[in-house]
Amino acid sequence: MSTTENIRKELQALADSKYQEFHSALVPGVGNILGVRVPQLRILAKEIAKREDWRVFVKATDTQFYEETMLQGMVIGAGKMKLDERMKYVGMFVPRIDNWAVCDIFCGELKATAKKGKETVWQFIQPYLTSPKEFEIRFGIVMLFHYIDEEHIDALLTYADTFSQEAYYARMAMAWMISFCFIKFPEKTMEYLKQSKLDNWTYNKSLQKTIESLRVDKETKDVLRNMKRR
Fold first, then answer.
1. Rg of the chain over all Cα atoms, to the nearest angstrom
2. Cα distance between the two ends of the chain
3. What is the residue-wise DSSP string for 172-211?
4. pTM over cut 0.90
5. 146: closest CA among 175, 172, 174, 177?
6. By the 8 A CB rule, do 144 and 178 touch?
7. In angstroms, how far is CA 166 from the centroid of its own chain?
8. Cα gap 49→58, rounded to integer Å
9. What angle (nearest 5°) sits at the alpha carbon of residue 113, between those of residues 111 and 118?
10. CB burial of residue 147 (10 Å; 0-12, 13-18, 19+)
11. Which of 21, 141, 215, 218 has the fewest Cβ atoms within 10 angstroms?
12. Pairwise CA distance, residues 204 & 200, whole Å
């Protein structure tokens, strides 16, 4: 039995039919969900990352279930390796992303990598920010969440004004990013919003996401509501 088949059996043993039904509703269009909760996947990923054959699993292309792909991404984030090897695996994995959940969890698993190799990872994600593929550009944008800081905020807002994607999950990622920028840099992001070149849908969704935040005060939310484009 192959490494992938063994891990698949481990996942099937963790499957929960009720959670499968619940999670399937959150990830429309994905029909191969077993129903394994993310915390359980993280525990398994850390355990797999200690095995000698973790690279065999990460490289495998004969996966059958959503959780197998998710788990591969987690192992890439958890495995002990040098930055250049990890980025090689990231580049291999990104084309496998076909839904928002795998994308966003994977980006979250790379937080420590982005912190340690900040400039290397920054340069790595740049081509994805102009990709015509929905989940490649979402990957790039969600990775930008690790760069909402003094050094990069101007670059992030400048990039936002070049954004012209029509794909839903790419636009949602952009709106989400701008809301996070607003939380950390409210004055600078407010000035950006006042002259933003974003399309109306993404602009309004950015306002909505910011208004929904518990970290924005009521007075500011009232101002943002009045900034909505008609």
1. 19
2. 59
3. HHHHHHHHHHHHHSHHHHHHHHHT--S-HHHHHHHHHHHH
4. yes
5. 177
6. no
7. 18
8. 10
9. 95
10. middle
11. 218
12. 6
Q: What is the mean pLDDT of the chain?
A: 97
Tell me the C-alpha to C-alpha distance, in Å, between residue 74 and each of 39, 57, 67, 194. Answer: 11, 11, 10, 39
In terms of Cα–Cα distance, which of 193, 200, 195 is closest to 223? Answer: 193
Q: Could you report the per-residue pLDDT of 144-159, keeping only the tens digit for each?
A: 999 999 999 999 999 9
Report the alpha-carbon distance of residue 28 to residue 99 in Å, rounded.
Answer: 9
Distance, CA of 224 to chain centre: 26
Please report where in the chains the tokens 């690279």 appear, as a residue: 55
For 180, the token pair is 């996070």
**Max Cα separation, the chain?**
61
Helices 168-184 & 153-160 angle (0-180, nearest 10): 140
Task: Read off the tokens for 217.
Answer: 């005060």
| pLDDT bucket at 1, cuts 50 / 70 / 90 | confident
Express each pLDDT in 193-219 by its tens digit.
999 999 999 999 999 999 999 999 999
Phi first, then psi: what are they for 92, rounded to 5°?
Answer: -70, -35
Name the DSSP letter for residue 146. G
- Classify the C-alpha dihedral 207-30-43-2 as positive or negative: negative
